[in-house]
Amino acid sequence: MIQLFHVTKEYPGDGPALQEVSLEIDKGEFVFLTGASGAGKSTLLKLIFCDEPASAGQLLLFGKNVAKISGSAIPFVRRNIGVVFQDFKLLANRTVAENVALPLEVRGLAQKEIRRKVRGLLRSVGLEHRADKFPPSLSGGEQQRVAVARALAPDPALLLADEPTGNLDPERTLEVMDLLYGANARGTTVVVATHDRSLLERYKKRVVVLQAGRLLSDGDSVRRAVS
Amino acid sequence: MALRPFRAARRALESMARGPYVALVGAATVFVAVFATGLFAGALGGAERLLESWAGEVRVSVYLAPGADLERARAAAAALAPGRRVEAVPSEVALSRLADSLGEQAHVLEGVGPGALPDAVEIDAPGLSLEGARELAARLRSVPGADDVDYGTAWLEGLERLVARARTAAFFLFGALALATAILVSNTLRLAVFARREEIEIMKLVGATDAFVATPFLIEGLLQGLLGAGAAVIALVGVHGLLVPRLAAAVSAARALTLADTLPPALVLALVGGGAGIGLLGSALSVARALRRT
């Protein structure tokens, strides 16, 4: 599903954020991307999300070379990808239901279908009773669950989460991780960028470790990764 | 994906309802621009109508020196103004007409003798332009015994000069005004777009195309333009209602001025269309800039 061949990303006036990273993530996998702050986790997610182009190397997404995807086609690629951000990125002046409905509206679904899906999604994240509230009135955990519901709304083939539990207490962290885990169990490929070791130990999934923009290790061994 | 204009219009109306202040600022900017343009165009149209109505009642008077032969002067004037109605007005007839025009105030003429006003020859030349009247007056100066020739009033000449200059300036003025307005509206709407940059960013993150993001903004710009231009047209109707009666009290020719002279339907259409167009253009420029940055 995702293939990186010697991918490098450099920002003008700055050192390389990623250097010669080669990586392959298959359909249906659950992958933790970990490393210290500045290791390149978020940059890697941005490249996969077509938010930024790679400076060198090749990135294949759903079998297509990202560098060859035209600007006008990027929105259609993104419709196969759900993204969860550490800062939630919810619209403060839209209700919870309207936030979750946004990707479905973008896809042009009928209002009736959107309402039905949103109700189901909010039920699955335990926020059906908060549908008409505005995000600022919700707790951090609730907001992140709304963000997860929005990311899952269009049934994406790929779910990217950038430090999705960074602002949450341990209990809310597990709630959000369980939602991502559940999505993976239903067939969605999930890539989670985190520096939370407890998550790596708890979920025992494939761990890709980045350090100063380079791929340090890649495998199932959590102990090796966290060490 | 189809653009679904009704859904985009609904989203535009929802955003305007959420941020009415920003929408009002945009509409107010268009209002000022359309009002200023309409005021200028309306004043120009009114002035042209005044000149036309004056042309409908052109009368050139040749005042004769004492002792001049009135009949000879009439014949000469008729020869110089072929096809026009030429009338010899002896001094006593002129005095009688003056008394009639004064009505109840005619008593002020008590004691004025029959020779107080000069004999005159009057030439009616309806439909003649001010320039034509000037040329005819110049010819009539050669009438035997002519002392003075009067063909209009000084303020009309001033008005004609002003209208002629305004006509020349109109093209540049409208161009400059349209450009300034587009920039002003674009900047105002840019603030509106800037206030919602996060919304644009999030929409793009969830896979919205540029068209999906831009359409509600364009509809908002269009609606703000229509709103501002509509309000400006209503204000211009109000200005007409306030000013024309006062102008008519000072200048009799202004009584003929109607709303269709100062604010003809074509001008109303142009103002509303222009306002809507400026709103649309300003919005398009702002949203295009915002989309390039996200």
Give a verbal description of the structure:
The complex is a heterodimer of chains A (227) and B (294). With 227 residues, chain A is α/β, with parallel strands linked by helices. Chain A has a domain at 92-155. Helix content of chain A is 35%, strand content 26%. In chain A, the strands form 2 sheets. Chain A has a 6-stranded mixed sheet with strand order 6-7-8-3-9-10, with helices on both faces. In chain A, a hairpin with a 2-residue loop joins strand 9 and strand 10. Chain B is of the alpha+beta class. Chain B folds into 2 domains: 5-54 and 156-293, no CATH class; 59-151, Alpha-Beta Plaits, CATH 3.30.70. Chain B is built from 10 helices and 4 strands; from the N terminus they run H-H-E-H-E-H-E-H-E-H-H-H-H-H. In chain B, strands 2-3-1-4 form a 4-stranded antiparallel sheet. The longest helix of chain B is centred in the middle third of the chain and has 42 residues, at 154-195. The radius of gyration of chain B is 30 Å and the shape is elongated. The model of chain B has no long low-confidence stretch (mean pLDDT 82). Classes of the chains: A alpha/beta (227), B alpha+beta (294). The A-B interface holds A 49, 72, 75-76, 78-79, 81, 83, 89-91, 93, 102-103, 105-108, 150, 154 and B 1-2, 4, 7, 18, 198-199, 201-210, 212.
What strand line-up does the widest sheet of chain B have?
2-3-1-4
- Largest sheet features of chain A: 6 strands, mixed
Most residues in contact: chain pair? A-B, 20 and 18 residues
Q: What is the number of beta strands of chain A?
A: 10
